[in-house]
Write a structure and sequence with these properties.
The chain is mainly alpha-helical. Helices cover 72% and strands 1% of the residues.
């Protein structure tokens, strides 16, 4: 047991490089990490991390001579964990410091690892028992190969292929190594190696691939060892997306896979994955210019692939029964009751069929000219798989069905038979005429409609949630997987309905009949059916829709009467309301029905059964949005417009609703009022509508006046105020600019209430001697809630208003002191981030009109908020996001205001730097966007030279600092765009003032020279592992590529890869680079030689 908590003696001795490594102590420390007490484990982990860091910071050759990995790996007494630790140290040295090791040491490490791999993988027993250890060894060997091949190890591929024929276990491990290498070069090379190195390795792989392919063919033809064959298929899978197509289509590979291995349960999943990769190949993108006979030849290859795989699945291999999947197999049941291997097989079947059809459907359809049953069987199999109760499999299938139905709708819905067609001559077939394609797919589309109706996803729903103040609020569910699935399914079912609405209608009515007769009755089935019925609104002709909907509603009403129990009745009723709400065209055309529905909803608003009131107000809102005009116009047979009638009984209608439901009800009324085009009538309606909330508002103000504001602190009053303001906010959302009439009535008193609560909060905090916990008391939280609701109302109004001059002259002046003054005076914890949102909305709305007000806004919120957020990166997250959004809005719309005060400008630059250094992605991204827009504004202004003289160097250094750390990777694209802008400003000579210090400390004579020298100095100090040659090449490349964004980004990526490595590998590719440059120069001369001009002796 380790004494104490890894005291200094063991620590010093493990980190003492002057004494030999104590292997026994190392073993003790490693085992403590896994088996010790918690405190010991933490101490041991710290020691190991320090040792690893220390070795990484020392000279690599000396460190590896001291930490003898070979001795540790060969010591039988040491545990696997210790050996793993040693391998980790060796892997880091190879990845990042290989070029700094002497050639002799490189050769020694390479020989040791190769021999160890061969030794361990030659014995079946060792290979199986030390599988995890072998995997790590293979990874290290691949790291060496990436460094040495092809320059120093040109025979690597032939070595590995030749050794594979000696022993099947060794061969299996060699296939695993080739798979790893393929992944490293083709899949993961982007951030791990420079583009030149990746290109060279890909070329080497392609040049030697014939040897690897021969090995694969040899294994498939001669081996019977299951694990070796599985490993070969998995390795082949990694090759298929990059090897030359000849290896796939001009050999017996596909036939071998289908005939010899696909039917065997042990191999079917890996083989199917390989065939999916082949079936997914897009020849057009591989060879952009591939046309004519060559393209047609590949079409024939894909035709053979489809025919042979589909035949094996649906008929039997080579057309000889039994099929791999018997017809009429219940795939959902097979998946539910099958093994994990069966589940994978069904998933792989879905992938093969969807990938092939998505890429090559015309080829599959071509086979249907001679054998339509094969395509129909394959499509039928995919429909059967779509019934599997697994969300991922269903998504795979659904995405394809959406593509297919969309294609059929856009190409076949308006099908016209050719004039000479026999179809035209037969009167019975004249209307409608079905295209041959639709006839081919008819049985599949029928099954697909049944599938969509029975599995319909849940539509967007309103969630009832509790906010930070314990209030129940309603939120619409947005952008979840369920919503995306509903939208895809709805779109697919709409296409299917357009393709044959009779079939869709029959399926839905049949399923509804099963609900009525009770044979398939369940809440789940009824919900799905009604969601499906609601989703196809508008997909039929108006007459057909009317007939269909009347039948559905009649049956549902009968079902509601028939069912016993409140729960059952509530489910049926909510479905009736959902369906009705989805068919606004029908409602608009049938006023009596619409009125009956709305009155029925009002009845439901008094029904206290859980969920019924929510359903009623949501449906009322939906109908009000889609049929709003019907409620404000006098309908035939009515004494007054419906909205007037509604206002008369308003209090009674909403008497049993919760506050959140009342807000939704008022929003619905707002949409109705917005449909009234006569302005005086609309204003009269609005005042009438707001009569009750305004009456409560006046009573609260009168009471506050009598009690000198004391009554405002009453919890019930604060709750009432929140609800009144929320009601106003919902009306403003629905009504838009006409809400001005109501806001004018309450605006100034509203700001007085805001100011009163600000003063009460500040005095409460002062009385508590700024104790932070006072912010969380119910009283202060309720007061802040009123303020937040006020700000939210103002933001909504500003965003919906249409008269900018009115907002600027009537609303902004009154706003400044109560809101901005309060923000400055409050303690940080009491400042509302919504204030920042409010002014951001004002600037985005009024744009340059707000320029005169910006200094005031800047002075009030900027410095105070910056002090709050620059203490760390965690506190006041909402303030951070809102402040930088405000900053971006000011820069975008009111840029001249920033130039009036130099100190403000400097503060803004520092804020932007703080933003893009932020670890919160949204903040960092806003900072980068703001900086880019600022640079573009500066470029077009008179102050460009002065700006760059003051800030160019600092910005360049700070953007480089975030580019080269690992915390800000997501911002790479914007960072690269900003750097290209900065380099181009110098390279193109846009900056005419000198950027270098004029005190004689710099010998630079041009901005280009100065920036190059500055970068060389900055980068060599930060990254001592890079040589002068590497840095010069990197800096030159930045200037050369700054006009081409794509090349500039690739150059930066290569530079970031080089930062991780010690030692220069550029000379390895110098020859290829020179050849490329010579080739380009030759092309340039040819082009220039075409004209009379002399060739420039020094082209840039």
């Amino acid at each position: 047991r380790l004494q104490g908590s890894m005291a200094s003696a063991p620590l010093d001795s493990l980190l003492n490089f002057s004494a030999p490594l104590d292997v026994t102590l190392l073993e003790t420390v490693v085992s403590t990490v896994y088996t010790g007490e918690p405190s010991q484990m933490a101490a041991a982990q710290r020691v190991l991390s320090q040792l690893q860091d220390r070795i990484a910071s020392e000279d690599a050759a000396g460190a590896l001579n001291w930490f003898r990995v070979d001795t540790i790996l060969e010591a039988p007494a040491l545990s696997t964990s210790t050996k793993f630790y040693a391998l980790q140290i060796l892997e880091n040295a190879i990845k990042f410091r290989w070029k700094t090791l002497p050639a002799q040491q490189q050769a020694g490490i390479k020989a040791f690892i190769v021999n160890l791999v061969i030794q361990k993988s030659s014995s079946e027993e060792t290979f199986r028992s030390e599988k995890v250890f072998m995997t790590k060894l293979n990874v290290i060997l691949v790291q060496i190969v990436k460094q040495e091949w092809p320059h120093n190890w040109p025979s690597f591929i032939s070595d590995i292929v030749n050794s594979s024929k000696a022993n099947e276990t060794l061969c299996e491990n060699n296939m695993a190594i080739l798979k790893l290498l393929s992944e490293e070069v083709f899949d993961f090379s982007r951030d791990e190696m420079t583009s030149a190195k990746a290109k060279k390795l890909k070329q080497s792989f392609n040049a030697d691939f014939s040897l690897i392919f021969q090995l694969c063919e040899y294994i498939l033809g001669h081996s019977t060892k299951q694990s070796l064959l599985v490993c070969t298929f998995q390795t082949l899978l990694k090759f298929l997306n990059w090897i030359p197509l000849g290896y796939i289509f001009e050999t017996a590979l596909v036939k071998t896979l289908v005939y010899n291995f696909l039917p065997l349960p042990a191999f079917r999943n890996d083989v199917l994955a390989c065939l999916t990769e082949v079936g997914s190949l897009d020849i057009g993108t591989i060879y952009e210019s591939l046309t004519g006979e060559v393209g047609a030849a590949y079409d024939a290859c894909f035709e053979v692939l489809f025919t042979e795989v589909a035949t094996a699945l649906c008929v039997g291999v080579g057309g000889k029964p039994p099929p791999m999947v018997p017809p009429d197999t219940d795939m959902a049941r097979a998946y539910a009751e099958g093994s994990a291997d069966d589940e994978t097989f069904i998933r792989n079947l879905a992938l093969f069929l969807t990938c092939f059809f998505r890429q090559h459907l015309p080829i599959a359809e071509k086979t249907a000219q001679t054998n339509p049953a094969l395509l129909q069987s394959a499509m039928g199999l995919l429909v059967a798989i779509s019934h599997v109760e697994d969300m991922e499999i269903f998504k795979i299938c659904l995405e394809y069905w959406n593509v297919l139905t969309s294609d059929l709708y856009h190409t076949e819905c308006h099908f016209q038979p050719p004039p000479q067609s026999a179809l035209v001559l037969t009167p019975a077939t004249l209307t409608p005429v079905t295209s041959p394609r639709l006839q081919l797919y008819a049985p599949i589309l029928n099954k697909l409609r049944v599938l969509m109706v029975s599995r319909m996803a849940k539509p967007e729903e309103v969630l009832i949630v509790e906010d930070e103040n314990g209030e129940i609020v309603r939120e619409t569910m947005k952008d979840s997987d369920a919503i995306i699935m509903y939208k895809t399914m709805r779109e697919t079912l709409v296409y299917l309905t357009h393709l044959n609405y009779d079939d869709t209608e029959n399926i839905m009515l049949e399923k509804l009949q099963y609900q009525v007769d009770g044979s398939q009755w369940s809440w789940h089935n009824l919900n799905k059916l009604c969601w499906a019925v609601g989703s196809i609104s508008g997909a039929m002709s108006e007459e057909d829709e009317k007939r269909f909907l009347v039948t559905v509603i009649k049956d549902l009403l009968g079902l509601c009467e028939m069912k016993r129990g409140k729960d059952n009745k509530a489910v049926v009723a909510s479905n009736i309301m959902y369906v009705v709400g989805q068919y606004p065209r029908f409602l608009r055309a049938h006023w009596k029905f619409l009125k009956t529905v709305v009155n029925k909803l009002f009845e439901f608003m008094h029904e206290l059964h859980p969920g019924v009131q929510d359903m009623a107000v949501d449906t009322f809102l939906k109908i009000a949005q889609k049929c709003r005009r019907k409620f404000v116009v006098l309908q035939v047979g009515e004494a007054m417009p419906f909205i007037d009638e509604l206002c008369l009984g308003l209090r009674q209608t909403i008497s049993d609703l919760e506050p959140g439901q009342i807000h939704v009800f008022y929003e619905a009324l707002g949409y109705m009022v917005s449909a009234q085009v006569d302005v005086p009538t609309r204003d009269r309606l609005l005042i009438k509508l707001m009569e009750w909330p305004n009456q409560m508002w006046e009573e609260i103000l009168a009471q506050a006046k009598q009690t000198s504001g004391e009554s405002l602190q009453d919890p019930a009053t604060m709750k009432q105020l929140q609800n009144i303001i929320r009601t106003n906010e919902r009306i403003a959302t629905a009504l838009g600019h006409p809400y001005t009439v109501q806001l004018g009535h309450i605006y100034l008193p509203l700001l007085d209430v805001y100011k009163a609560y600000s003063e009460m909060i500040n005095s409460t905090i002062a009385a508590a001697q700024s104790n932070a916990h006072v912010m969380h008391t119910s009283g202060v939280r309720a007061m802040r809630a009123v303020k937040k609701e006020t700000l939210k109302l103002l933001v909504t109004y500003i965003e919906r208003s249409e008269d900018n001059e009115l907002v600027l002259n009537k609303f902004v002046p009154a706003l400044l002191d109560p809101v901005l003054g309060d923000y400055v005076r409050s303690i940080p914890a009491a400042r509302d981030p919504e204030v920042l949102s409010l002014f951001c909305s004002l600037i985005n709305k009024l744009q340059s009109l707000m320029t005169p007000q910006v200094p005031r806004v800047f002075e009030a919120v900027f410095k105070s908020t910056l002090d709050m957020i620059t203490k760390n990166f965690e506190d006041f997250l909402e303030h951070r996001l809102n402040l930088f959004s405000l900053l971006r809005a000011i820069n975008h719309h009111c840029f001249p205001a920033l130039l009036t005060e130099e100190s403000n400008f400097t503060l803004m630059i520092e804020s932007i730097k703080w933003a893009f250094k932020h670890t919160e992605r949204n903040v960092a991204e806003t900072g980068l966007h703001t900086l880019l827009e600022l640079l573009q504004n500066v470029q077009a202004s008179q102050v460009m030279n002065a700006f760059y003289q003051a800030y160019y160097v600092g910005l360049l250094q700070d953007v480089f600092s975030v580019l080269t750390d690992t915390l800000h990777k997501p911002g790479f694209k914007l960072q690269a765009t900003i750097l290209a802008h900065l380099f181009l400003a110098v390279e193109a000579g846009a900056i005419t003032a000198p950027l270098w210090p004029q005190d004689g400390s710099s010998a630079a004579t041009s901005n280009t020279q100065y920036v190059r020298e500055l970068l060389m100095q900055m980068l060599s100090a930060s990254f001592p592992n890079l040589t002068q040659t590497q840095l010069t090449g990197a800096i030159n490349g930045m200037f050369e590529n700054c006009k081409d964004q794509a090349n500039f980004k690739q150059h930066l990526r290569d530079f970031l890869v080089q930062l991780k490595e010690f030692g220069d590998s550029t000379e390895l590719f110098a020859e290829e680079r020179q050849a490329e440059l010579d080739s380009k120069a030759g092309e340039l001369r040819k082009r220039q030689g075409g004209g009379p001009r002399p060739i420039h002796p020094h082209p840039r």
